[in-house]
Specification:
heterodimer, A: 347 residues, mainly alpha, two-stranded antiparallel sheet, B: 322 residues, Rossmann fold, four-stranded parallel beta sheet, 10 strands, globular
Amino acid sequence: MRPLTFTRLIVNCLYLAVILFVVMVIALKLGAVPVSLYGLAADLLQVLFHRTSALSSNYDLIVIDIRLPRILLGIVVGASLSVAGTAFQALLRNPLADPYILGASSGASLGAILTLIVQPYIALPLAISVVFTPVGAFVGAAVTIAAVYFLGRRDGTLDSNTLLLSGIVSGSFLSAIIMFLMSTLAGRGDLRGILFWLMGDLSTTLQPSLRWVLGVGFLIASGVIYSTASDLNLMLNGEKEAMHLGVDVPRVRLVVYLAASILTGIAVSVSGAIGYVGLLVPHVMRLIFGSDHRILIPTSAFGGAIAVVLADTLARTVVAPSELPVGAMTALAGAPLFIYLLRRKFA
Amino acid sequence: MRDVTDELGRKIQIPQNIHRVVSLAPSVTETLYALGVQDRLVGDSDYCDYPPEAKQKPHVGGTISPSIETIASLHPDVVLVTKGINRLDTVNSLASLGIPSYAMDPHSVAEILTSTQRLADLMGAAQAGDTLATELRRQLAETHERVAPYPPRRVLYVVWPQPLISIGQDTFMADALRYSGAISIVNEPQSWPQISLEEVARQQPEFLVFSGSHMASASVNIDALAESPGWRILNAVRERRFANTSDAIERTSPRIVSAIAELAKQFHPEAFKVPTTFGFPAGGLPPIPTQDAPLPTEVKPTPRPPQAQLESIGTAECACAR
């Protein structure tokens, strides 16, 4: 493992930040309405100084009110998924682990579907109805995470293998419930959105209040995971060895498990299950930057953001004016890339 | 026994007189009631909810995976299916039990009417079919006559708001919009395309159209949309220009004609303020055609290759009720 210096960390993150910025500019430029780079810069300045009323035309509004929030959402979702994936791969010491492996995505999907089913029958105040589905999804993820936590304990502490198995079983059980609901309610017109929701989609327009919750939640949970980076490095060599070196393994497991689950819940509650990002980005970053979690976690965050914004830009432009679900894009690109990495590793 | 060709071009053998039928689609059930032959309907699907009496008929399960055993136990002379929402598997399973299925597949308002007449023929109620079709054509012509002088409204039909799903140009719903004096801004070949909000904002539709399945929560939905970033860019949302209609617009049944009239009144309220029978309205509208005026788009059903059509029974479209 190469020694990590602060400079190396900052320089590498800056590289990725520049790539992310370029991807963002491309994503902002592409879409149904044309926009010039100069116009884009002018508009963004107006927004920064809270002078949205000065925006010159409807086209500017489209870019600022539709495209920009969607790109920012993609960044938070992508970064959350990748950091959660990195954390789960370290926690479970399993290269196949991804943010959905412990059933959080199935729990979130079920939560969202239940809100969609009951929504027509209950009169909700406006302020609640606009956030009803994402909140339902987050509650679904949280309940699943709690259940898996209690199922995954052995002798009072979390056991990686038991956690993995109980997560997988809970996930498939919840998926079975979803299949049951979808097949019994298949003819109900108001449930059409479910299918698209399950495929992962970033076109949801979020309430501004939720955006803040997402951003702050992401920063806190990633910060918590980053604070355990050195401990995760030691745990890579085996939990017993880490314990001998003074790592409070049960505490690290609990903290990482909770923080990574919150990140997954955040991502899945607003975008559905976007596959492959949380699995692949950590692997790619590990190939480039090594397996030191102190650099792997921040670079994964950038990598995930880049991957999701790119995938979403493709999803909304390749068949314009129609759109594809972004989950279809990530799976199309992700599965072959995964096979390639796998073969390269053994070659 | 007699040979009949259904709307997918399949040749089926059915008894001379049909005494017992099972319907596997809400639209077919509605059509049977409209023809007045509901006494011979011995079973329908769980989603057959119109007219309300249809709910009292024995149910054979959902439209996608009905219980073949239950259908067989009802001893139908023929099972009525639609290509849009039923699956080829169901038809094949029934065939292996010797139960013939008659498939309907209308793609436009005109085809819904001819399809209704053909079903009437099948049931030996050709007279009722002709009467019904004539009456429906008269109602369509009346609506058309009202809205024809006005330029069509550019509208967005919202199947689902987030993600935004609309209807394709070749659907019978897009055709129904044309009859009601509107045109969908979505010009896609798929039946249920996912549309980018940006594109909608660029096109600025004059009306958003919501269908019946959202009726219960429609008012909340609309207020919620008006609050949403992105949606509030739409002039139609800011100015609350919405049109609501019952779920009849999404079913290939005779009731679609009343849904068309309902929508036309919302798109062109001014067209319905003036009486048509007493001369010309103020404002110099063009002369109103007589009631025998030809329909705007009388389409002959185009023949489709039978096997290719059948193979595609049961695609993603199944999730959507017609």
